[in-house]
Amino acid sequence: MKYGYFDDLQKEYVITEPRTPVAWINYIGTIDFGGFVDQTGGALLCKGDPALNRIIKYIPQLPGGEFKGETLYIRIGGASGYKIFSPFYVPTLDHYDRYECHVGLGYMKIISEFYGIETEVTIFVPLNGFCEIRDICITNLNKEPVQLDLIPVIEYTHFDALKQLTNADWVPQTMQSKIIEEAEGRKILTQYAFMNREHRVNYFTSNHPISSFESDRKKFLGNHGYGTWKSPESLNQDELSNYEALRGDNIGALMHHLGVLQSGDRKRVITQLGQTAKIDEAIKDIHKYRDPKSVDKALAALKQFWEDYLSKAVVNTPDAAMNRMLNIHNPRQCYITKNWARYLSLYQLGFGARGIGFRDSAQDAMGILGHAPEEGRELVEMLLHVQNRNGSAMHQLNPLTMEANAGDSREMEDRPKYYSDDHLWIVLAVCAYMKETGNMGFLSKKIPFYEKDREEKPLEWGTVLEHLRRAIEFTRQDLGAHGLPLLGFADWNDTVNLPYGAESVFTANLYGAALKEMTELMEYLGDAVSARKYHGYYQEMKQNVNQCCWDGAWYIRYFDDKGDKIGSKENDKGKIYVNAQSWSVISGFAPYDRAVKALISVNKLLNTTKGIKLSYPGYSGYEPEKGGITTYPPGAKENGGIFLHSNPWVIIAEAMLGNGNQAYTYYTQINPALKNNIIDEYECEPYCYPQNILGDEHPQFGLARNSWLSGTASWMYQSAVKYLLGIRPSYGGLIIDPCIPTDWQGFTVTRHFRNAVFNINVKNPEGISKGVKQIFLNGNEIEGQTIPIPDGGTIYDVEAIMG
């Protein structure tokens, strides 16, 4: 069954069936104020920390037909009583004649037809705004006049969202609602909750006269609280009760009498849901967004922001689904993931357990550098503040307090309290920023190292370059029996938790990639001594990996604390792990013959028609010495599931070896835009990447979960643009090095780089995958494959001939 279609011209996905297999969402606003809206108008909003400043209640585990956070009722008056329905389908579940949910760039627009009434609702948060706007337009399509009422409803949660679920006595005592009367029948329904002596006010209002309101859920539903959201008893009364709740389950319901609409008549009502420290501080914005012209202007500004952001890189390839992702949905997801980290989604519920991950956000930053480099730099700077003096990094941080912690390692007393890979990702992120911008001054900026006990230990500051140097030195001093980096609590694969003394082949390769970056940077800076030193480190680790880790047809993944191999042909389960193969190529450690064999093993043992599995075969029961990976059934998540984050690394590795056909096949296997016709199997949104898909060892092979907030977004974008299309920034200019399918005749890219625009036309007359024999810049042939740094010009035409 199909649930919608892509509208590339409007840069939207249009959902035409609200009963999607799981909730499909879209993000509005930012973490400063915002959240997500689902395909039936339900919403979860917060201001700042989603754990400690939640606004409305959205519980994803409830059935899809249940009310979640926010909805809209329409009431048709008549001699025999009222007909009540929701234009969002949920929660009244009426039969609809038309349903469209337009998933746009920073907005959701729901258009529906029920009972001859057309409703169009645009939901968004203005740029830098602190309120959610719902712009509601209602049209009578009936031939006869209709009397209509409009009742928007929200349900509040306590600011401390977790307490809403854990303290059913304390929380209700702290919540109160009050009404503020204004001129011409307008009202502001305010809701207060008290927590840790902090005072915040949520407000709910509109630009239309409000005849009555309700703030108590029990009274709104009726029947002593046993009424339902599907059919609230209070809506059968002419007016709501005007009750100001003094405790309990606070809601906001606003009664709007629209009067009699003649055939074709249209009415517009604009609601606002926001939060402020004091209501007086919000009055200016409340009055502003009651004006339809201001709302139109705010929506236009939001759309212009996204147009500007996406225009920084535009591709045109022979693959329409690839174009759709690279021009719209993939860079958009990169920005959302950079902004929200792993804080708030249908799967990360924002109860404070995750915060911002050091490794996660370093990779997220890399995904937006071509579109918003300075925002990427700001995120990198934040992360550098929680790098320890010894060069390692804290695993998670709260960006509001800048307090950091060691992540899940806190929960296992017999395991090390650091992750072996975290600190190395920042080397890749900083170097990627430098190549994008050429801002070498950033390396000299001083940033403090993190210390938990700052009163006893004064802050130590270091330049960004010093932070990078210490990251390298920490790993070099933290080696195990085979000369490989110690695993710590875990590496990128959080679920393999081995006792102290275990070594990580992945971290060895990530260390190698970081050393290549440091060597290149030192050479560019003219520091030959440091360049030689890091090259020496690189050669040492390369030798250790190849001496100890080659298993005949692939590289092993770990040595455990006893020196036994994991990810080896010697193992019964978990014989092969994908990241040891892809990263041995990315690092450059694998000699060509081994690189080829390792990637052949990936294709033979780990590839499926729906993506590449993380490992194989899956473990079939809990093994405490290995940790979390064995808590999943075979084929799920890290235990042999298709963990999408690791797929682009194989794409990059294949492209580095010149295998364009194979790299492109791996790209298309997990392109969500190609899942639109198999959604009943796949289930997740077809307009963003999920984190994981169940592998072929699982009975539900092909089922996706954990969409939106995944490092998959950043790496799929990088793998496609930098390695398949081969447009890569460098210190010296823009590299043109494509690796494409042999049947592509070429492609074009418009790329903003260093304050200039490059219109790049790649031609493939010989039908090859890799190799560029000529490049013309504004009609003049240049040497090599690097377009030099712009010198005063603003627009450059580039023609690259493969051969």
From TrEMBL:
Please provide, alphabetically and separated by semicolons, the GO molecular function terms listed in this UniProt record: carbohydrate binding; glycosyltransferase activity
What GO biological process terms does the UniProt entry carry, in alphabetical order? carbohydrate metabolic process
Ranges where the Glycosyl hydrolase 94 supersandwich domain occurs = 11-292
Looking at the record, the residues that make up the Glycosyl hydrolase 94 catalytic domain are 305-726
Write down the InterPro entries for this protein, in alphabetical order: 6-hairpin_glycosidase_sf, 6hp_glycosidase-like_sf, Gal_mutarotase_sf_dom, GH65_N, GH94_catalytic, GH94_Enzymes, Glyco_hydrolase_94_b-supersand
UniProt KW keywords: Glycosyltransferase, Transferase
SUPFAM superfamilies with a match to the protein in the record: Galactose mutarotase-like, Six-hairpin glycosidases
Report the protein name in the record: Cellobiose phosphorylase
Protein's organism: Geosporobacter subterraneus DSM 17957
